[in-house]
Design a protein that fits this description.
It contains four helices and eleven strands, in the order E-E-E-E-E-E-H-E-E-E-H-E-E-H-H. With 245 residues, it is an alpha+beta fold. It has one domain. The strands form four sheets. A five-stranded antiparallel beta sheet has the order 6-5-2-8-9. A hairpin with a 5-residue loop joins strand 10 and strand 11. The relative contact order is 0.17.
């Protein structure tokens, strides 16, 4: 993705200060905001801390819009990340693929909201250790999962979900894109399921889905979201048995 200037398991990453490395820049997604629909993406880092299975924890940035103009949050994030090493000329036309494998020093903090715990990047600065963290090779990028290559879960602060590939109908035919279903209830109303982090989707599975299934007369939106959440839960269960990401 080029930006022109001015133009498994689902364990939450623990609070952390130390080395990280960029392992993904997610594809652009549509998201509703108070200013209307916009394109957004996230930066994903592995951190220098392992889970019990030997894989690394990952943390997802907040959503960014594909802009590096003076006031853009993405530009500010890059400036903090690379400091003086980021030249103004590089921002003229930035290919985000060049960010993959770039090291960083990260501060990850937890936000507690509505009974959920979210891992947020509080600081991303240059790595000056002389021994930068390198990608483990275990993380599967979202674009590869969506292309049917590899499996795994992402996490958004969107942060992401269980691969979000299209569901298969009889005979393997693709017929439903559950990840594209828009949530129509609660604080995430108007956002596609794939743009929620795993904790938010799990909250819908645990808190909204049981009541919706007990409703004798669900709306069409209810039925679509119910099917998407059931698919997500099944995919999560399967992938947690198969792969670390």
């Amino acid at each position: 993705m080029k930006i022109k200037g001015n133009g498994g398991n689902f364990e939450t990453c623990p609070e952390f200060t130390g080395k990280g490395v960029c392992v993904d820049v997610t594809p652009l997604r549509k998201q509703q905001s108070q200013y209307g629909e916009r394109d957004v993406f996230k930066i994903v880092f592995e951190v220098d801390r392992e889970k019990e299975d030997g894989s690394r924890f990952c943390v997802w940035s907040h959503n960014f819009t594909p802009s590096v103009n003076e006031k853009a949050n993405f530009r500010k994030f890059l400036r903090a990340w690379f400091g003086r090493d980021l030249m103004e000329s590089e921002l003229g036309e930035l290919d985000t693929e060049t960010l993959i494998g770039k090291p960083a020093q990260l501060v990850v903090v937890h936000e507690h909201k509505d009974g959920e715990v979210y891992a947020n990047i509080a600081a991303c600065t240059p790595d000056k250790s002389g021994a930068p963290l390198k990608p483990s090779g275990k993380f599967v990028r979202r674009k590869d999962r969506e292309g049917g290559e590899g499996r795994g879960a992402s996490g958004e602060s969107g942060n992401g979900g269980a691969g979000y590939r299209r569901a298969q109908g009889a005979g393997g035919a693709t017929n439903v894109d559950h990840g594209a279903v828009k949530v129509h209830v609660g604080k995430y109303s108007g956002i596609e399921l794939r743009d929620l982090n795993p904790e938010a989707v799990q909250a819908l599975v645990e808190k909204w889905l049981p009541g919706a299934k007990a409703n004798a007369k669900p709306t069409a939106d209810d039925r679509r979201l119910m099917a998407a959440l059931e698919w997500w839960a099944a995919a999560r269960e399967k992938e947690s048995d198969d792969v670390p990401y």
